[in-house]
Hints:
alpha/beta, Cobalt-precorrin-4 Transmethylase, domain 1, Methyltransferase, Cobalt-precorrin-4 Transmethylase, Domain 2, 2 domains, five-stranded parallel β-sheet, five-stranded mixed β-sheet, 10 strands, disordered C terminus, binds S-adenosyl-L-homocysteine
Amino acid sequence: MAGDGIWNQDGSVWLVGAGPGDPDLLTRKAERLLQSADVVFHDALVGIGVLNLIPASVERISVGKRSGRHSKDQRSIDQMIVDAALVSRRVVRLKGGDPSIFGRATEELAACRAAGIAVRICPGVTAASAAAADLGVSLTLRGLARRLTFVTAHVVRGAVPDVDWAALADRQATLAVYMGKAAAAHVSAGLIAAGLPRDTPVALVENASLPERLTFLTRLDLLPLAAKSALRDGPAVILIGEALRGACPVDQFQSREVLHAGK
Ligand code: SAH
């Protein structure tokens, strides 16, 4: 059956990467785990196309997690996972993208281990990789972008993100900013103040990998404007750096319009 050999025992937990939304970007292992689980706890960010791959016989529990909206707190989620595994169930904790990137995996791993429950990770395609694919661009560039940095600029409403901009303002790096839409003005001002050129290429990708995705190309000093006016309310990743100069989005038409609007 689908789960043979993947579950080393009942009463264990897999943290599974659901990828960015397109169900075709799910790993085969993730699909096997979904098919053979007893229960799946999933985030709000997990796309409907992926959720549709979960058989009707598998219990499916949404544990929320969209920024600014009501969701279960992390401790309750940890406890729900542990409780399900303690009654010998095969538990999948399904998370958007890759579980090890801004996915609160540490807390869940620790909670399982503290309860003596076997827990493993099935990786997924992270948002930055999906965004690069939508932009038709490489995140690294020989000689020009030698470093790729994943950073989160998540802020609690109105606060200023606690980020060391000087450490990030490297012309030879590509920055992938997660949860950065609300903090776009801080990101732009912080990086420019720390020495990045104002015309550093920037790409915003909302709903990467999905048919409703939006891609926008702009420059660092125009990022706040773009983040405010160009996006809807889906999850968006901001990519910054010289590597983005070569972006050639799948949605050419839309992106060209924005480029012109930004000039
Ligand atoms: N573990 C996830 C990240 C979770 S943090 C991963 O590896 O992708 C949530 C943030 O991820 C969102 O605020 C957004 O910045 C980004 N994100 C997730 N899915 C996305 C998507 N389909 N398109 C663009 N950004 C996405």
